[in-house]
């Protein structure tokens, strides 16, 4: 038997012996909580910023990022721990799905796990915890939906809601003092979309220089390119052909092929043939009768000359995104062959005016009165690229949330109101549930309540007192109360105008509880009895 005693514990290879159940569980909890704690201090309107600095050889001079955005911070983190990775993943998903609430989701998942850990220490089996959490999540979700309100999409109230939501989203970011200005700007941009959710129509151009307040919304589309020399600088009633085709072989450019010639004349002959081919292509393009020709690729002098001579304005080397946007905004099709001039009506884009403009010190091309009138451009100005990048991220968040709100229409009060209400619902439920699951439901409520607690803490306020007062106010039936982060009191959210989109909260709740459950359960599988390593 001695032999068995010696051999059995060595079933796994040496490297694998570290993987004890207890350790694995602890590791995933610690990892997830550590990640949540890292972004915790950025939560809320008084949250702090983080500097992200790339490391490694040759990276010393690279661009650093200053940000308050949970998803941006988490995305750039390099982690080993699998549970930490799950948290980063849900934050990313939140960013892609709804654009905001990226910190909330990670923090909530972390707090859930912190509570879960305590329950496990009290010898409550993870399955009971999960069962309780599921009940709690459903109850919370129901309450969340019950307290949300909806206004008619064309009403002034809805418009006001949008401005308030934009303001709340922007309030934790770098541009706090300018948030009213940018909230209006974002709402105007989103309302132009008329319900479409294509963010491509809203283009953001960042130009260092000036101050943040010099940023503006330009109706129309701006392409960061220049009109080729020798062409008209102002075209009214433009018919635009957008192409992605090679226009750069009027000179010999044959790779991987050997051409042997005896004299220079022969070279000239080949060149002439190439030129002829080019001319043929240009002729085909001319059949479409455009007045403006936009190409993704380079255009060499010869075809450029041919086009310019026919009175066509040429824009070459438009980058792909820019070109796709031109096509979307003007209603053009992107062509690469030109064999169907009879379809010219369908494939040509249209806009009222194309002109060259100056923004700051840069020349750009502006398309006004596009066929698809939704397109517009937000021009961001600011002292440094760091500021511009953060403003860009914040505006992107706001735009996403606004688009989601236009789709979903339902809104809830911010400032911790929804979390406190959900927590209250869970606590009421816990009183009705028999068995150990009730502990888990209570734990869920505590985790939810951590969100407003952390927002308070980040503002330097006494969270214990504020949260208690908050509870009492809600108990009294004051359904619009919430954190007043300017005075450090419990205020009225409808007076302060702090609103949030229901979808953001829903998504955060679902994703956080799912992730917490996942980490909890994975642990349950791993949790086989720790192997004893002592030698008999
Ligand atoms: P996230 O990345 O999760 O969106 P934020 O840092 O944007 O994190 O913080 C969002 C939280 O801050 C929300 O719970 C919101 O209700 C709260 N909040 C935002 N603005 C205010 C405000 N002016 N007063 C009180 N709470 C606010
Ligand atoms: Mg936010």
From TrEMBL:
GO terms for molecular function: ATP binding; ATP hydrolysis activity; ATP-dependent protein folding chaperone; unfolded protein binding. One of its GO terms (cellular component) is chaperonin-containing T-complex. InterPro entries: Chap_CCT_beta (IPR012716), Chaperone_TCP-1 (IPR017998), Chaperonin_TCP-1_CS (IPR002194), Cpn60/GroEL/TCP-1 (IPR002423), TCP-1_chaperonin (IPR053374). It comes from the Eukaryota. It is found in: Cytoplasm. It holds the Pfam family Cpn60_TCP1. Keywords: ATP-binding, Chaperone, Cytoplasm, Nucleotide-binding. Signal peptide: none annotated. Molecular chaperone; assists the folding of proteins upon ATP hydrolysis. Known to play a role, in vitro, in the folding of actin and tubulin. PANTHER family: CHAPERONIN. Belongs to the TCP-1 chaperonin family. Heterooligomeric complex of about 850 to 900 kDa that forms two stacked rings, 12 to 16 nm in diameter. This is CCT-beta. It comes from Paramecium primaurelia. The lineage of its organism: Eukaryota, Sar, Alveolata, Ciliophora, Intramacronucleata.
